[in-house]
Amino acid sequence: MKTKFRDRITFYLNGRLEEVGAEHARMMLADYLREAKRLTGTKIVCAEGDCGACSVLRLQPQFSKSKRQGRFLAINSCITTVAQMDGSSLVTVDALAMPSDEAHASNGAKLSPVQKSMMESHGSQCGFCTPGFVVALTGLVEKKLCQGITKGTCTAKEAMNATTGNLCRCTGYQPIIDSATRLDLGECESLNKRFLSKNQQKTLAASRTKPICFKDDRFSFYAPTKLADAAKYLSKNKTARLIGAGTDLGVVHNKGKLKLTHLVSLHLIPELYQIQKSAKTVKVGARVSLSELRVFVQKLVPEFSTFLDLFASPQIKNSATLIGNIGNASPIADTPPFLLTTNTVLHIIGPKGKRKLPFEKFYLGYRKTALKPGELISSIEFEIPRKNSTLKLYKVSQRKDLDISAINAAIHVEWEKSGRPKIDTIKIAFGGVAATPVRVPKTETFLKGKTITGGVHDETLKRAVELIQTEITPLDDLRGSGRFRRVLAQNLFLKFFREELKS
Amino acid sequence: MSGKGLKGLPHDSAHTHVTGQSEYIDDRPRLSTEVDVEILFSPHAKAKIKSIRTEKALAYPGVIAVYTAKDFHLNLWGTIFKDQPLLASTEVNFVGESVAIVVAESREIARKARGLVEVDYEILKPILSIDEAKAQNSYIGVKRGIERGHPTKAMRSAPHQIEGKIVIRGADHFYLESQASIAYPLEGGQIEIHTSSQHPTETQHVVAHGIGLHLKDVTCIVKRMGGGFGGKESQGAPFAAYVGLVAHKLKRPARIVITKDDDMIMTGKRNPFENIYRVGFNDDGRIISLIVDLYSDGGAYADLSTSIMERAMLHSDNAYYIPNMKVEGIVCRTNYHPHTAFRGFGGPKGVATIERVIEEVAHALDKDPLEIRKLNCYRPGFDVTHYDQKVDNNVLPELFQKLEDKSNYQARRLEIEEHNREILQNKDTATKPLLRGLSLTPVKFGISFTTRFLNQANALVIVHRDGSLQVSTGATEMGQGANARIATIVCEELGLPRESVRMMPTATDKNANTSPTAASSGTDLNGSAALLATRKIKERLSIVAAKILQLPEDRWAKNTAGLGTEDEIPTSDVYADPEDPNADSKWETGIATYHGIRFEDEHVYHVDNPDKKIAFYELVNEAYLNRVSLSDYAHYRIPGLSFNKLTGKGDAFLYFTQGVGCNEVTLDLDTGEVKVVRSDILMDLGRPINEGLDVGQVVGAYIQGMGWVTTEKLFYSKNGALLAHAPSTYKIPSVQDTPREFNVELLVNDENRMALRGMKAVGEPPLLLAIGVWTAIHDALKTLEPYQKRYPRMELPATQEEVLRAMYPEQFK
Predict the structure, then answer these.
(1) Confidence grade of residue A328 (pLDDT, cut at 50, 70, 90)
(2) How many helices (H) and strands (E) does chain B have?
(3) pLDDT confidence of A100, banded at 50, 70, 90?
(4) CB of A393 within 8 A of CB of A409?
(5) Which residue among A47, A130, A402 places its CB closest to the CB of B260?
(6) A413: which of A111, B242, B425, B578 is 20 to 30 A away, CA to CA?
(7) ipTM of the complex model
(8) Which residues contact residue B242 at a Cβ distance below 8 angstroms, ignoring those fewer than 6 apart?
(9) Among A34, A125, A160, A182, the residue to mutate for chain B (most B Cβ within 10 A)
(10) Measured between alpha carbons, how far is A468 from B325 in angstroms, rounded to an integer?
(11) What backbone torsions phi and psi does residue B753 show, to the nearest 5 degrees?
(12) Beta bridge partners of B437
């Protein structure tokens, strides 16, 4: 039995093989890079994945079934454990410059085109955020190169979208945007070529067929290759914690509220990386990143895809999952309103086998779910909105991008066959207005079958607004007052009808 | 608009920044004996400390020591008033006040063990607002005032009067590198401090006094900071004192790098202000009298708040001539973190107040605020401030006119009026109902420290025998590019390429008695000192050059000095005017020429014979062999400062940096969301030494100011604890918040004869142009029904919630 498991994790760091056991696997990746590897280019500022100074590039080779080849994506190294890097290839800012023969005292290495352009555009001032921006923009260039775009440059919009997860307090960003729009893609070399050989890919692929189990006095790590094993392990080990991307757990760990000492990872289970479309639904596996999901639903549910642009940073979305977003039962998570209005079903596996649970029954209270001990969610299946329907998703926060919502909402109407303005059924869900994301059933029942004729001043809508206010219980907190949230809930609801009834 | 196309080389550390090689405090390699330090701070805004028990913490494996107030030789510090304990002993006065420091073998252990220090508090009722402080007469320092004319009498006679109050909130610096220091114990009881600080000299003093050493035994070194913005002017020092104490006691290197959360909780912010204004004006909108009472929240200790208040009073006129004016200010003592310097110091709070006044005057007369601004603007004949300083080289009228044209203000004004009318008519059917607002605001920012003795600097310039240089000044590098500018000044003076100069870390054993790098004056002061030192060397080299250009090469010292066959070239000590860096130079180039010798392209020649050249490194070698000093030191002090703090009169500043900005915003009528859609900025920066870096300062300061006036809200609990203490809850602008259209231009102005090579300081002034974003939000709101009669008085920042509240006041009741 003993030989069945690997007792260490395997990854490449700047092209070199790393095999680490519990002592280092327990560390946050950023700490490991800075302290164990003396790669201090990667910075730690917020330790919560909000500033991007800790960004590194990560490639996870796809399991053989997938046709897509992996590419290097920016992720936050401060909120992920080293253990979670198993099977990946990592590149840090320290390795991006090319070694050069013309080394000069002040110019040690030949800068990569991204670095050169950042320098020439005055893209750095104090320099502390700079490595993170260089990594994020390198991720953008890598994306373009992998798409076969090897000429021209990046657009300002692309640069902005790629750096939404990076904060800079000095430059006002404009010089950084300029640096991206000035670089020549023709001079750029793909990281895949520089840092990941065929042999390395084989090594990683081979490592992924073997489950992992190791521990020392401070840290245990278990990563099975079969789903049933994970459920079995979780039901036997009460202290074990399931970790996906860990973009929430890593933060909680860093802030000292809990310690990640006993982890179970599902990263070696191939089926969890699948997204499947059936006639009516999309089924999303537990390990599918939000970035992948966004691309997958671009045509199927464009509203959801656009919405995924707004929330979280690219670094977070490159690793975080849909299941992670709902699993911690945050009242203000951004995907639940959507899932609450699309007949979503959770596929659950536990010690007693598999079961399905309607998503509406998932939340029991503040940060409390219907998952029983030992149970885990293997996939989420939501319905694709029908033709004769309208789905709108809203999010309001202090700052538009990369901010936790004050309130979010989903409104999903199926119109009568005769079309607008007669409502067949309506589903309305809000986040940030109660202890859990909620639907407003009384309002929904009231609106069923109603025809809205009077625009936003329609008496029916007025009544509905009043009903909504009785069904939500928002609190005052640092993201806004309860009043603020109530006014927003009303305005978003009216906005929906104003826009829909116009067309 | 930035970077390529602008004159000026990249930041002197740009290469190591982009490769990740730039070393910050926590990037320094660890020594095997090094220990980690963490702080236990107060969870209460005001409490008596009844006891501190350290036994449990000390018993935790890996903990080496726990220190409290009694371990300091002098447990007191403070830049202006020494009123703040390094570690609280009998009482705590704000949430985040340091109580004990825990020393451990690792950061993880220190962090864990600090929770084991047991402090028994008796909780007292804190003062948590300016109003409460006023009611309890809780102040720091005394009320000061500046007065001109007959404000009360003139107010009575004014045809129109408005009274109001403006509430201005604080903001966090959000430098990316948190407060950090490392102390190394050296032989003989010396301590070497490496810190992220804008003020190495004060840090040296606080450490030495704290642990009871002479200043000669403490050296403080600052290589660079990961951002400062004022937050490391005074408040870095206690952290250095903590590690200094540990190194002193344990004889082991000690490191402290606090987390972002701890940093935000512990350190002071931009001072909140609540100002009361009364303005009298005539039918045209000309201000006849202005009376302003400024109240700031200083937090629990004095820090720099009284100086900040002074600058606020000196900027309550901003760009406007106000014939009768009285401004008074006093700092309230509360139980928040001691508030401190933040880019602009008091300036933004004074300027926001007068800009609010201007807006109210315009609104009352139903005029465009721009008209009122231009009407009251400093202009020939009306160019003396309320503190009696003449505004020399005043370009405000020109700036207004140029930007009004460039930004197409008048046409956009009409278009926006039309748009808003339409949107309000159709808001029940519009897809995206956005209100638009437009505002063009100026800034006039005084350059110099208002405390006269701080306006001095020194620099050390060393020429090595291969012709390369090391330059050390009191200017600390926090990203602003002071080093790059100073290097450029030195290189251009000696005709050398930029690579010839290495800017050295600021260290108190080379540059002592320095002032903080603050008040936008880093390059002005230290660049002047560096230039003066360079010129001393340059004159000596010129004497040597003049001589050897006449000698055949076989008689040069390189061929004769070993034998002693030639007489040495005598060079006398040179006079360098410590008050005028432009004294010896041609105004057009800024370059001095001595004894007819020109320094160009790494060579020197005599003006009469440009073809005969000597390489710079050869000249340096000849000078050395002639026993001529190749290093020099210079001191510079700003001349002509006469401001008297007690009378509130005199020349407070060497000159003024001026600029204008035109901002257009949209407000979402559904959500209150604010977007800056276009910004046009025109600044007078004199003759920039590095245009690229200067524009970088303009853009960066402006966006930082935009955060302060819009999204950055410090949310405190009702017990005075800051709850927004991380980027997840405290929202500085992100890349997506930058204006969709952003035009920055510099005015051509060759006439700032007061400053080094005609430059103008840039660090702070552009931040104040972001106040125009705040007034533009008001401008948009003014079209709404409730504000036809009364001006929409918003707090600053105008957060999304504030904007929505202003839109639907009845729904927020």
Answers:
(1) confident
(2) 21, 27
(3) low
(4) yes
(5) A47
(6) B425
(7) 0.97
(8) B37, B39, B67, B86, B98, B101, B181, B254, B256
(9) A125
(10) 53
(11) -75, -10
(12) B665
B398 given a catalytic annotation: no
Q: Which of A264, A307, A305 is nearest to A284 (CA)?
A: A305
Q: What is the DSSP letter of A480?
A: B
pLDDT tens digits, one per residue of B202-236: 999 999 999 999 999 999 999 999 999 999 999 99
Torsion of CA B614, B620, B623, B629, to 10 degrees: 150
E strands, B494-600, in order: 501-503, 506-507, 597-600
| DSSP, residue by residue, B641-704 | ---BTTTTBS---SEEEEEEEEEEEEEETTT--EEEEEEEEEEE-BS-S-HHHHHHHHHHHHHH
**Are the beta carbons of B811 and A46 separated by less than 8 Å?**
no
The sign of the dihedral angle between the CA atoms of B85, B89, B93, B95 is: positive
Q: What 8-state DSSP symbol labels residue B132? A: H
The verdict on a CB contact (< 8 Å) between B20 and A41 is yes
Angstroms from A299 CA to nearest CA on chain B: 23
Question: What is the tens place of the pLDDT at every residue in B472-510?
Answer: 999 999 999 999 999 999 999 999 999 999 999 999 999
Who among A172, A255, A256 is closest to B738 (CB)?
A172
Contact assessment for residue A389 and residue A420, using Cβ atoms and an 8 Å cutoff: no
Buried b (16+ CB within 10 A) or exposed e, B485-519: bbbbbbbbbbbbeeebbbbbbbbbebbbebbbbbb
Place of tokens 């029916």: A460
Q: Which residue in chain B has the smallest CA separation from A134?
A: B18
Quick one: pLDDT band at residue A404, thresholds 50, 70, 90?
confident
Helices (H), B267-341: 305-314
Closest CA of chain B from A310, distance in Å? 10
Distance CA B713, CA A408 (A): 20
- Supply the pLDDT for residue B506: 97
Residues comprising chain A, all counted: 503
d(CA B302, CA A85): 49
pLDDT at A103 exceeding the cut of 70 = no
Please name the residue that has the structure tokens 């030495």: B208
Q: Express each pLDDT in A412-459 by its tens digit.
A: 999 998 878 899 999 999 999 999 999 999 999 999 999 998 888 899
Q: Name the one residue in this structure whose structure tokens are 């498991």.
A: A5
Q: Which of B13, B726, B735 sits opposite A163 (nearest CB)?
A: B735
CB contact at 8 A, A419 and A67: no
Rounded to a whole number, what is the distance in Å from the CA of A27 to chain B's nearest CA? 11
Strand partners, B716: B722
Give the Cα separation of B408 and B402 in Å (integer).
Answer: 10
User: Can you give the pLDDT at residue B23?
Assistant: 98
The DSSP 8-state label assigned to residue A306 in this structure reads H
Contact A124 B11 (CB under 8 A): yes
Task: Locate B780 and state its tokens.
Answer: 């948009």
Considering B764, B795, B802, B810, which one is annotated as catalytic? B764
Q: In 10 A of CB B328, how many CB atoms? A: 19
Of B468, B550, B482, B545, nearest in space to B511 by CA: B482
Q: Please list every residue in chain A whose beta carbon sits closer than 8 Å to the beta carbon of residue B702.
A: 172
| HSE value, Cβ hemisphere, 13 Å, CA-based, for B11 | 34
What are the tens digits of pLDDT across the range A125-169? 999 999 999 999 999 999 999 999 999 999 999 999 999 999 999
Do the Cβ atoms of B545 and B503 come closer than 8 Å? no
Residues of chain B with pLDDT under 50: 1-4
Are A29 and A47 in contact by the 8 Å Cβ rule? The answer is no
Per-residue confidence (pLDDT) for residue B577, from 0 to 100: 84
